[in-house]
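Q: What would this chain look like folded?
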Amino acid sequence: MTYQARPLLWNPNFAVLYAYASPNERGQLGLIATFGGAEIEPSIGASINLVNDNGKLSSWDLTPLINGTHVPTENEWGGLFNSKNL
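A: My prediction, written as structure tokens:
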């Protein structure tokens, strides 16, 4: 196993939290994360980070899996992701 890069999880329009990435047998990274902020309600998304032809990781393209419909009543995240809140 060798270190290749540290692809950033950053977007100017929303925050990304609680991300988890894991490689498959070909070394491609899969990611699942919560995201939200500004005009985006807390949501869950996933992405695959492929290795470019030059051997470097490409950028993350977070695809929404569950779009949130509510913001927390308190300024906290926690038990927000249950079926009655989505």
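Residues 15-66 form one domain.
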